[in-house]
Amino acid sequence: MPNIKLMKLPPLHEEKVDLDAHLNRFERTCRAFNVPQWQWSFQLARFLQGQALDVYQRMTDEDVGEYDLLKNGLLKRFRLTERAYRKGFKRVRIEVGETAEQFVDRLKKYLTKWREMTGFDAIYEGLQNMILKDQFFITLDKPLQTFLREKRKLNLNEMTQAVDSYVEAHGHEINRSETKQNKSN
């Protein structure tokens, strides 16, 4: 039996913490401590406060032990819906000091959450890579877009490696694209 008392996480402060990141950290910690999934809901409740705790307390006695129901209730309460992940995917931009590979990893997380919320199967890897490649490309500044166009057809991995090599060789920071995004995304 795992020693659950050793499992320590900061409380969830909804105004300060990214709920999605907090849940991801919680799930990883549960797996690391071999906490049986039937206990996850009760363990998560130890770290909830405010509106998040209200979601837990409003669950029925029959549902309170269902982690997936609690997680979905929290996601809905904090409006982390299909639409929110889609918008996040469309709006995410490369951060100063972030490598192309790190940026694409963040894009993948948004896309995965978006896909999970829509209920699509994860068998469309080619489509996923196409969407990631497109979104990555349009977020780059014009010189990097031109550089990649000159390289012709690159897969997503080749594209991120080429951008990272360009940045390293030219001492160039990856800048945000000046492309106007459609506000209705």
Mind sketching the topology for me?
Layout: H1 19-32, H2 40-45, H3 50-57, H4 67-77, H5 82-91, H6 100-118, H7 125-139, H8 142-150, H9 156-170
Helix pairs in contact: 3-4, 5-6, 6-7
Structure description:
The chain has 2 domains: 74 residues; 89 residues, Orthogonal Bundle (Non-ribosomal Peptide Synthetase Peptidyl Carrier Protein, Chain A). The chain is an all-alpha fold. The chain has 9 helices and no strands.
Globular, elongated, flat, extended or rod-shaped: what is the shape?
Answer: elongated
Distance between the termini: 47 Å
Radius of gyration: 20 Å
Global structural class: mainly alpha
Structure summary, number of beta strands: 0
CATH topology grouping of the largest domain:
Non-ribosomal Peptide Synthetase Peptidyl Carrier Protein, Chain A
Q: In CATH, what is the class of the largest domain?
A: Mainly Alpha
Task: Summarize this structure as a short list of keywords or feature phrases.
disordered C terminus; Non-ribosomal Peptide Synthetase Peptidyl Carrier Protein, Chain A; 185 residues; 2 domains; mainly alpha; single chain
Short description:
The protein is an all-alpha fold and 185 residues long.
